[in-house]
Amino acid sequence: MKGIVIMNARPNGEKFYRQSERIAGALCRLGAETEIVLNGSVPAIVGAKRPTEKKTADFAVYLDKDKYLGRILEGAGIRLFNRAAAVEVCDDKLLTCLAVAPYGLPFPDCIPAPLCYTPAAKADRKFLADVAERLTFPLIVKKSFGSFGNGVRLVHGMDELVRTDEEFLYEPHFYQRFVAESSGRDFRVIVIGGKVAAAMERRAKAGEFRSNAELGAECVKAEPPEEYLRLAERAAEVLNLDYCGVDLLEGKDGPLLCEVNSNAFFEAIERATGTDVAALYAEHILRTLRGR
């Protein structure tokens, strides 16, 4: 059995290589010949009479977010972990909310920002006033695409909301109700093959409302209540994910889904919990392929 681990064509840091090497190594130890390749070195072509390239591997661990290559590889008969459609939905934070909403999964209220294509446009103050009235201050302004807490702002008043909206104007973004009970703190839950594999609590450093490990948050092993774990597993099921990191907030009435990361880094949660996430993911991949 032959596999590939696909990285972005321009990896932004050593942690991207380390994650790929851990997964590829775990697969090789289980008997699956696996190599790491960058997007751009994978044969792919789209044409009316030749919609996909020939099959070059039995499976691919897809650590990129390129929605085009993923679909091309699936068209060639390569099983992706995660599937192309699941990666695409999770890459867009608001699209994730739209995907889970029909299933009744709880998450903070969101209002999409109208897309803007007009040069030198200004913020629509009337629209923003309505946003403020419906969500109340403080509220979150969040870019639809982004990682490691980038593009997420906590806004306390109208002038700040207008400035932030004008800064984000030409990028897809949305507004979200701020969950004060969970400010600077959340749970990151890793789900593999539909089951919780590990969980940690992330605690932001002083003065920071975002609890990303990349922003200096403290990460400690956690045992969230059962309803939190079931929500994480349900989110993975609804989004058809083989592997993911689910971020959960503590609302006053129970857990709330914050984000679902299809390519979640696992170094921090391995250190916090002692769980070999790479090995568990590799086992799931091969078990899935052999069960087909």
UniProtKB/TrEMBL annotation:
InterPro entries, A to Z: ATP-grasp, ATP-grasp_RimK-type, Rp_bS6_RimK/Lys_biosynth_LsyX
Gene3D superfamilies linked: 3.40.50.20, ATP-grasp fold, B domain
Residues in the signal sequence: none
Top-rank taxon: Bacteria
GO molecular function: ATP binding; ligase activity, forming carbon-nitrogen bonds; metal ion binding
GO cellular component: cytoplasm
Keywords: ATP-binding, Ligase, Metal-binding, Nucleotide-binding
Domain annotation ATP-grasp: ranges: 97-286
PROSITE patterns on file: ATP_GRASP
Pfam families per record: RimK
NCBIfam families named in the record: rimK_fam (TIGR00768)
Protein name: RimK family alpha-L-glutamate ligase
Protein's organism: Candidatus Scatosoma pullistercoris
